[in-house]
Amino acid sequence: MGTDFHDKKPIFQQIKEQIEDQIMDGRLKEEEQAPSTTQLVSFYKVNHLTVAKGVNELVEEEILYKKRGVGMFVTSGAKDKLIKKRRKAFGEDYVEELIKEAKKLRMSEEDLVRMLRERMRK
């Protein structure tokens, strides 16, 4: 039941983001035990080092923490950290590009806001 990886991002990054998504949508709750590296290797059908790299980045970012001999757990406050991080990335990765393209198309700020409002209501 592994996942096919077709994204251009490295697999460890995709695994990391999938764990983040599970925290964001509540499938993994703060202070709850996260899947082990072994479980992730089995599920995703990838190399142990690939999974470890993604998990270790989450530990470095203080999204997950290790309890020696017990496993990995979601840090208290992890969801808020992820929201802040992703909002910043959203602005840099999407909004800036959106604004550049809107300017090329000679769209006014009002045009862009109207378009966003219409799409958000759908």
From TrEMBL:
Concerning Gene3D superfamilies, the annotation shows: Winged helix-like DNA-binding domain superfamily/Winged helix DNA-binding domain
Annotated ranges, domain HTH gntR-type:
9-77
One Pfam entry name: GntR
Output the Gene Ontology terms for molecular function: DNA binding; DNA-binding transcription factor activity
Alphabetical keyword list: DNA-binding, Transcription, Transcription regulation
| InterPro entries according to UniProt | Tscrpt_reg_HTH_GntR (IPR000524), WH-like_DNA-bd_sf (IPR036388), WH_DNA-bd_sf (IPR036390)
Q: Is the keyword S-adenosyl-L-methionine in the record? A: no
Q: Which SMART domains match?
A: HTH_GNTR (SM00345)
Tell me which PANTHER family the record gives.
Answer: GNTR-FAMILY TRANSCRIPTIONAL REGULATOR (PTHR38445:SF10), HTH-TYPE TRANSCRIPTIONAL REPRESSOR YTRA (PTHR38445)
The protein depicted here goes by the name: Transcriptional regulator, GntR family
Annotated organism of origin: Marinococcus luteus
